[in-house]
Structure formats: C-alpha cells, structure tokens
Specification:
This protein is mainly alpha-helical and 516 residues long. The protein contains 19 helices and no strands. Helix content is 79%, strand content 0%. Helix 1 (3-47) packs antiparallel against helix 6 (170-187) and helix 4 (105-133) runs antiparallel to helix 5 (136-167).
Length: 516
C-alpha cells in the first residue's frame, strides 16, 4: 500500500469513526428529550408534582438546549468544535446523573436544565463537525444519517424509556442515559479538532441578551398554566422576553463579530430551510410529549404499552431520511419533499382529532404514521440543504442557528401546547388544581368519564391549531424556495463527481478535517 493510499484509507476510517461518535450523540440526546415524557406520571406521583413544575422536567431540557444552542455553535467556531462537543457531553452526563439522584421536583428541574445545556453543546458542534469533515454528496449522506439517527432517537425514546421505567424505574432510566453520555465522551477521541480560519471574539452581550430573552419568554408561557394567560407575571415575563429578543436583533446588527450573523437570513433559501426545520420539529412535538400522558391517564395503559404505541411514528423515521437523502442527490426536488413533509404533519395532527377515551392502537395508527412519514421525509434534508448555503467559516454558526430555531420552535410549541391543555381544562372543570392533575394523567374520582371527555376536547382544540400552523408553514416554505432550488440539483452533480472519492473534506486544523 502506497503512502498516499494509506493516508486516504486512514482519512476514510477516521471520518467514519467521527460520524459514529456524532451519531451516538444525536441518537441519545433526542431520545432523552422524548423518552422522559413517558415517565412524567410516575415522576409526578413520586415527587408529588403537577402542572408547571412537572412540565418543566421536559420544558426545562428543551429550553436550556434552545437558548444555548446558537452560543454553543459560535463558540465551537472559536475555541474548537471538538472541544465544545466534549464539554457538552460532559455537562449532559453530569445533568443526567443528577436527575437520577434528585430528591424533589425542584432539583430534578434544575438537573434537567443542566442536561439541556450539555445537549446544546453536543448537537450544535456535532452538526458543524460533520459539515467540516464531509463535502459534496458525502455531506448530504452524513446529514441524512444525522437526521435519520435523531429521528430514531425521537421516535423510539418513549418506547425505550417506557420499558426502562416499567422494568427499572425512572431514576434508573436517567442513570442509563448518563452511562451513554460517558460513551459519547470516549467516542470524541477520534474527532479531529476544527475551528473557523478567522477566530472572532465572543459576543458576550449578544449571548446574554439572547439567553435571557428566550428564558423569559418560555418561562412566561410555562407559568400561564397555573396563573392564566392574562395574569401580570405571565404578561410581564412575555413582554420582557420579547423586548430582549428585539434588543438582541438591534445589538447583533451593530456587532462586527455577532453571536448570530443576521446576514444568514438574507439568503431566502437558508431562511426557508430554517422555517421548515422549525415546523418539522414543532409540528409533532405536542403529540410526542403529551400523548403518552393522555394514554396512561385516560386509557390506564402502562408506560411500556404506551411506548410501543408511540413506535407507530418510528417506522417511517427509521428509513425515510436515508432514502430522501439519496433522492436529493439524484436530483429529486428537496422543495417538493419538504412541502409534502409539512403537509403530512398537518394532516396527521388533524387526523388525530379523532382521539377519544378507549381509542386503541388501530385508531392511532393512521395519524401517528402520517406524522412519522412527514418527519422522515424532511429529517436530514433540511440540515444538508441549509448548510449548502453557507461557507466553511460559518458552519458552526449555521449549525447553531438551525438547531436553535428548531429547538426553540419545538420548545415553544411544547410549552404552549401543555399550557393550553391546562387552560382549556380549567375553563371546563372550573378548578386550576384539578385541571393540572388531569393534564398530568390523574383522572381519579367518581366523575372519571366526564373528566376524560373534557381532557379529550381540550386535546382536539390544540391539535386543530397545530395542524393549521403547519399547513401555513408548508405554503410559506414553498413560496420562499420558489419553483426551483438550484442547490437541489447541485447535489446530484456533486454526487457524480464524488464517485471516484469519498467526499471527505481535506485535512486541516482550521476549517476542515479528514481526506478528500
């Protein structure tokens, strides 16, 4: 074997191991996001929690990830993407371990928030690492694998967590994920360090304003379940959060080296793919997070059984991202795929309004599978298409933007969906405390059937609202991308050129890593 051939083979091996390490993170972190939802009734019962405090077990994780994702991506460009990946994995692991040991709901909420911060570091830097390691059609395949893996984690999280919660308890479930976090840390050894060629200073002011704005906005929405949407604390928190986000935009426009380069959104295609990624994640979010609680509370199903039902979304997500990645490389319109994806997610939410007490797996198969197909069509496609619009020096920022808007969107929808369920229930049952208990899956009492009916009606209203929003998003994305996206066909051309090589970026300590 010649020196050049050996170096080429070494580059392929290292790139493959890098992909495996990143994919492990993108499998387990989303899995813990959705898997925790199955454990909520048990956690609420053990820690005597309901309402906003119990919802924060899920929302806090999402919020922490969303509010720090962009900062993590930009920091990765500066200090090194591998270093940020390792830091994120370490924080995530510590938070998961603390969650397993939490003695009350406040400590659990804090630990989950810490885990979310770590997840942001892994996911933002992981996407940038793939963008720096692979080029051309290989990059499209890598991002398709990333989307497929994240989809598997999201879809199978409730099933795995349901089995673990039934078999070992919710504390041991967090312990298992802490163990997987340790494996992610070990896998980072093979990753080559990369960073932007020009290392800007950290935009501390912009980062703080962004995080504060998102926290206040989400906190207000979360507290609305107990205080009401018109209460002074909720309105004040929401207004302050919106004002800070507006100030963030003004601050970033004046920064020479912003944490968020707003010129990224000047490219309407990049903006369109960001919008698509928001609704692909947010559209199914309410169902993923709260349907397990409904099925356990109304139908008296076990966590394991509910987890198996939620697998109905998993089948399409397991296979479709890889198929759509290849279709795009062969010249199939990514615009058509993503518009179809959003339309199917809207249809799945609308179809699920047939939800009723006693509904079985057969009645849930259609709507859940439809949403799963919609998710699978877009996962992997949105990231790859968006990253094709930016240069190498902004890969970390672009990955941070994508993950930030996606996670922020799903967090906001999750928070508003859960809060709306409680608000709608309170309007029906006349008692905020009772409404929170029903939404937490506690329907015990002599009028159980009536409570289940009120819970179901609240679900139906929320589902129609999400379906309408996804349909509007499908139209908007289609218009922004136009009739033809030149980048879609460029992928097919690159694929043809790459057949003689591996599509791995040239090795460098700054912008890229690996072998061409």
């Amino acid at each position: 074997m010649t020196g050049e051939t050996a170096e080429h083979a070494h580059g392929r091996l290292r790139a493959s191991l890098t992909l495996a390490a990143v994919l492990l993170g993108f499998l387990t972190l989303p899995m813990l996001m959705t898997g925790t939802t199955v454990a909520l009734p048990r956690i609420g019962n053990d820690l005597h929690a309901s309402g906003a405090a119990l919802q924060w077990v899920v929302v806090g994780y999402f919020l922490a990830a969303a509010s720090t994702m962009l900062v993590a991506g930009s920091l990765g460009d500066i200090v090194g993407r591998r270093r940020m990946f390792v830091c994120g994995a370490g924080i995530y692991t510590a938070g998961a371990l603390a969650s397993a040991c939490a003695g009350d709901i406040v400590l659990l909420d804090v630990a989950r928030t810490v885990s979310g911060v770590g997840a942001a570091g892994v996911m933002a830097s992981g996407g940038a690492i793939l963008g720096a390691t692979f080029t051309g059609a290989a990059r499209t395949r890598a991002f398709a694998a990333m989307g497929s893996t994240a989809g598997v984690g999201i879809a199978t999280g409730p099933s795995l967590a349901g089995w673990l919660v039934d078999s070992l308890g919710w504390r041991a479930t967090f312990g298992v994920f802490a163990g997987v976090g340790t494996l992610i840390l070990l896998g980072a050894v093979v990753i080559v360090e990369t960073r932007a060629r020009h290392r800007p200073r950290v935009d501390v002011v912009g980062a703080l304003v962004l995080v504060a704005g998102l926290v206040l906005l989400m906190f207000g929405a979360n507290q609305a379940s107990g205080l009401g949407w018109g209460s002074a604390p909720v309105l004040g928190s929401g207004a302050a959060g919106a004002a800070l986000l507006g100030a963030f935009v003004l601050v970033e426009r004046r920064r020479a080296q912003p944490v968020l380069d707003l010129t990224l959104f000047a490219d309407r295609r990049f903006a369109a793919w960001c919008l698509a990624s928001v609704f692909v994640a947010a559209g199914p979010a309410g169902v993923m997070v709260f349907l397990p609680t409904y099925l356990q509370g109304v139908n008296d199903l076990s966590p394991r059984t509910v987890g198996l039902i939620m697998l109905m979304q998993a089948g399409p997500v397991l296979v479709l991202p890889q198929i759509t990645g290849r279709l795009v490389n062969w010249g199939v319109s990514a615009r058509t795929l993503v518009v179809l994806s959003l339309t199917l997610i809207a249809a799945g939410n609308a179809w699920l309004t047939t939800l009723h007490p006693g509904v079985g797996a057969a009645g849930l198969l259609g709507p859940l599978a439809t949403m799963g197909i919609g998710m699978g069509l877009a996962m992997g496609t949105t990231d790859g298409q968006a990253m094709n619009q930016v240069d190498a020096d902004r890969l970390g920022m672009a990955a941070g933007v994508l993950n930030t808007v996606r996670t922020t969107g799903s967090t906001l929808v999750t928070t508003v969906f859960g809060t709306s369920l409680i608000s709608l229930l309170r309007a029906r049952v006349g008692d905020g405390g009772l409404a929170a208990r029903i939404a937490a899956g506690d329907l015990s009492g002599p009028d159980r059937a009536w409570r289940a009916a009120q819970y179901t009606e609240a679900w139906q209203i929320a589902l129609w609202a999400v379906a309408a929003a996804c349909l509007v998003a499908a139209v908007a994305v289609g218009l922004l991308l136009g009739r033809r996206d030149p980048g879609e066909h460029g992928a097919a051309e690159v694929a043809e050129k790459d057949r003689a090589g591996v599509g791995v970026a040239p090795r460098s300590g700054r912008g890229t890593a690996g072998m061409r």
